[in-house]
Amino acid sequence: MILIHGWRLSGRSWELQVENLLDLGYRVVTYDRRGFGKSDVSSTGYDYDVLASDLNDLITELDLSNVILAGFSMGGGEVVRYLTNYGDSNIDKIALISSIVPIVKQTSDNPNGVPQEKLEEILKSVKKERVTFLEDFLKDFYNVGLLSNPVSDKQLHYDWTIAAGASPLATVKCAESWASVDFRAEADKITVPTLIVHGGDDKIVPMETSGKQASQLIVNSNFVIMSDAPHGLNVTHAEELNNILSSFLGRANSEAGF
Q: Active-site residues: which are they?
């Protein structure tokens, strides 16, 4: 099982899921997207075709088979583009968690998306005051001040440290990618079993434009809504998410629950 992290963070963001997946008997692979975490920084290559190529290189280098791909937020795009460019012959299942798939931006035929002026505001803030923006972004990421059991200040600082340590160029270019891409035509062609999990109170990627729409496009999908969960539900609702993943995946080499 390959876990693909969201924008700003690194493979370490999956730490509350890894042990559960190992207990189910899976080999678990996390990696840092180029420009993030411990990966090298490149001056180019932050579009989804190149990012999917990086994922394919990882699968090829490790000689992985019967792969399950899980993408969080921006990482959902890599999952879908991988299937588009490399096919699903080696992919057993996929999971899209708080994912940007199929589209974030508001368009004439996607009225529930994020308005262009809001996306431009985000990009402007990332370019001019990145580390300050990241602090505020993380509060919205976890719905700080809204949840009855909010994340700790230490969790916010931990995430901020990872996000601030990422390449400024990669942070901007990846934001440009997820803010502009439209995966609707690609999602419509997905046939592998798919789990879609989204928070009903996601302040970062509205469920109507992402999870709900993805569930309508991907025929072989199971859509789970965590009604009060924020974008960062992998932390705030870790136990619930782990139970959902366990039901979908089943134990390695056995039949899954969904």
A: 73, 202, 231
